[in-house]
Specification:
It holds the Pfam family 2_5_RNA_ligase2. The protein is an alpha+beta fold. The chain has six helices and twelve strands. Strand 6 and strand 7 form a beta hairpin.
């Protein structure tokens, strides 16, 4: 599949969708379901020196080079990391391989992120699978390698209903937990499959474990438990079928 000429879409130059395989029967049984998020005020950008783009506000980003599966159904930021394999591709912090929630849920998630997440102006709501990833000039080659491996990965249901957090030295990152009802290891199997293709992109493995999460923001340690409780009270669960991954990059 020929990659189109790079086009800048808001802060993202490329957003590429790669579908997992599915049969007509499976598609009927596992159709995406979205529980409408509670009404939220329009998100406001924090003063981080960048305007809020349509992608950041939750508007639907345009898909570039959307591909079907093989059955034919439709360490400084920004600096390249040294390659860890014989492939010789450098990793950058401006690209990622992700799973994104339904676009209808962007507004509710971004209402939280606009106030609390330092990365809000740079990225859409997403769950990183491999990050940092390769420069977007490598996306066409990466796509070819991913298609064959994804043919063996089945779609699965994902649900965002609970908030968790990571504790850091000076603050805590609060995130939505991507639960997979009926198959607790589904997300980890997807990640393992992607890591088989790109073993050099193992930065999302911490202490030998991959913990999928959708970042909502950063809080001080003394405030984190109260923040999770408050967010949980106002949150309406979002559920959908993960049937594709996306390659994204930003230009700033």
């Amino acid at each position: 599949l020929e990659w189109p000429t790079p086009t800048r879409i808001a802060t993202h130059r490329h957003l590429q969708r790669l579908r997992l395989p599915t049969s007509a029967r499976h598609a009927r049984a596992r159709a995406p379901r979205t529980f409408a998020p509670a009404a939220a005020a329009a998100p406001r950008a924090r003063a981080v020196g960048a305007a809020v783009s349509p992608v950041d506000r939750g508007d639907a980003p345009r898909r570039i080079g959307t591909m079907a599966d093989k059955r034919g159904k439709g360490k400084g930021k920004g600096k390249a990391s040294e390659p860890k394999s014989g492939r010789g591709w450098a990793k950058v912090h401006k690209s990622a391989l992700i799973v994104a929630p339904p676009e209808e849920a962007f507004a509710a998630i971004n209402a939280i992120r606009a106030e609390h997440d330092k990365a809000y102006p740079r990225w859409m709501p997403h769950v990183n699978t491999l990050y940092p990833f390769f420069e977007d000039s490598r996306f066409g080659d990466a796509e070819k390698l991913l298609r064959a491996r994804l043919a063996d990965v089945r779609p699965f249901t994902c649900r965002l209903a609970r908030f968790g957090h990571f504790a850091h030295k000076r603050n805590c990152t609060v995130w939505l937990e991507p639960e997979t009802p009926g198959d607790a290891e589904a997300f980890k199997r997807l990640h393992a499959a992607l890591l088989e293709v790109f073993p050099e992109c193992d930065d999302t493995v911490r202490g030998g474990t991959f913990t999928p999460h959708l970042t909502c923001g950063q809080w001080l340690p003394r405030d984190v438990e109260a923040a999770k409780a408050e967010l949980g009270e106002g949150w309406t669960a979002v559920e959908w079928v993960v049937d594709h991954v996306q390659l994204i990059s930003r230009s700033d």
